[in-house]
């Protein structure tokens, strides 16, 4: 059965919240043991899609097939037990850390070697069981709480782990430990990952593919930059988006004044100085916030923070070496107004 | 004012010497209120969970009725229960009138709305992420109900203690349903009412001291639990 059907197959899926439409996915397939990322602005429907994939909610229209079974029609409790989800803001039960981690096993009445399993999974997420196991739920930092919440899911050895913004409210160290733990589990027992995140560099490092969601629809891969409106017309016939520090982004005429611009990371040129020999209307000052190797290529993905906007840029390894780029370094980003396309 | 000081000293003597009449009233009170609070919790906690956890048409109206019942006058409960369990009443064959189970049954009617309302509030106040967390960890049906109540345990205990406080301090039901029969259905509150009427302040005061001590202990527990929750 496993080999014959994809892990998830969504068909003609529609989900509305009250009178407002949230998701419209004609077709989406997720393979066994894959790791899929979803990116998109707040309110685009990412979390709703994850809740549907976790079977916490069901769509009003369409089908979700999980391993070939239509989850809306059959008795699916056993299948639902194979999927678990980590929330953006973890909720720990009002009991000891040990009891929190062991909870999922206990509701499954699976108590075999429970202490060893709890201790092992706590070690896996970088939390010392000897120090933390007997602590109360409120005696943890935000990052520790998120990792304990993750441990309470990983101990179940789920077929699918769904993560909603797992690194949104944790420090770099916790983000790195979360990555290590989920990668380890994926390698150990073929767990599939479905992750929504704004942290594209982190997301690229843990997923095989990234899909973008925009206004409830799946819209291409996730590496493109999104520049939200509103846009104002200039005398030169271009349109500008004003950033908070006074810098502006130039673009060609948008479909609507509040349209979202799309910018391919390969269309951005990075320089250490402001250059006048490049004929680009957009010359933006920022600093490198994160860097990562792009999967299956020799490129490096660089997050440049420009006045609160993260611009993902794609450079070759020699290009990065030549510029001596490191996180925190001030850089200039250049791109043409015509490089900004529209949804 | 000497009779008050004298009454107080005699009250202390009655308590220390283990006066059987005083202690019978104390034990009857504890027996009746323990029975009624147990019955109220068995009925009220599940109803409170349903009212707090689920959304259904008419929920606000049901909530308004339950909250109105919080202010039930004890004599009105006494009147209706008396009418039901007196020989002429529909439940007359049960012979509950002037018995401890009779008082406990009427007190259950008085206390159950308190348990329902405060349990519903406790469940409603739980973090919204709890429901999703339990579903994602694989909890179903009974496990979800029990875990919700365990999460709200301090607030549910506060409901129980508040209900207990109401049961031990009421006088109308105990008087009307119990009949204030010496050695049998006389409770602390009915005894105080009777002794005061007779001018026997010492017994009244001794029982008042016991009642206040119980109330103090109950309130102490409430303060402790409120802090923990």
Provide the fold topology.
The complex is a heterodimer of chains A (343) and B (229).
Chain A (H helix, E strand, L loop, with lengths): L7 E10 L2 E11 L4 E5 L6 H8 L7 E6 L2 E2 L6 H4 L2 E4 L10 H11 L6 H11 L4 H4 L9 H13 L5 E5 L7 H18 L2 E5 L3 H7 L2 E6 L2 E5 L3 E3 L4 E2 L5 E4 L5 E4 L9 E3 L5 E3 L10 E12 L5 E8 L2 E8 H7 L6 E6 L5 E2 L1
Parallel strand pairs in A: 3-8, 3-9, 6-7, 7-8
Antiparallel strand pairs in A: 1-2, 1-4, 4-5, 9-10, 11-15, 12-13, 13-14, 15-21, 16-20, 17-18, 17-20, 18-19
Helix pairs in contact in A: 3-4, 3-6, 4-6, 6-7
Chain B lengths: L1 H16 L2 H34 L5 H11 L4 H12 L14 H25 L4 H8 L5 H10 L1 H17 L2 H7 L9 H11 L2 H28 L1
Describe the protein in words.
The complex is a heterodimer of chains A (343) and B (229). By secondary structure, chain A is α+β, with helices and mostly antiparallel strands. Chain A contains 9 helices and 21 strands. Chain A has a 6-stranded mixed β-sheet, sandwiched between helices. In chain A, helix 3 packs parallel to helix 6 and helix 4 (114-124) crosses helix 6. The longest helix of chain A has 18 residues, at 172-189. Chain B has one domain (2-228): MetI-like fold (Orthogonal Bundle). Chain B has 11 helices and no strands. Chain B is globular. The A-B interface holds A 51, 54, 56, 77, 80-81, 84-87, 89-91, 93-95, 103-104, 107-108, 152-153, 156 and B 127, 129-130, 132-133, 135-140, 143, 147, 150-151, 153.
List its traits.
heterodimer; A: 343 residues; alpha+beta; six-stranded mixed β-sheet; five-stranded antiparallel β-sheet; 33% strand; B: 229 residues; mainly alpha; MetI-like fold; 11 helices; globular
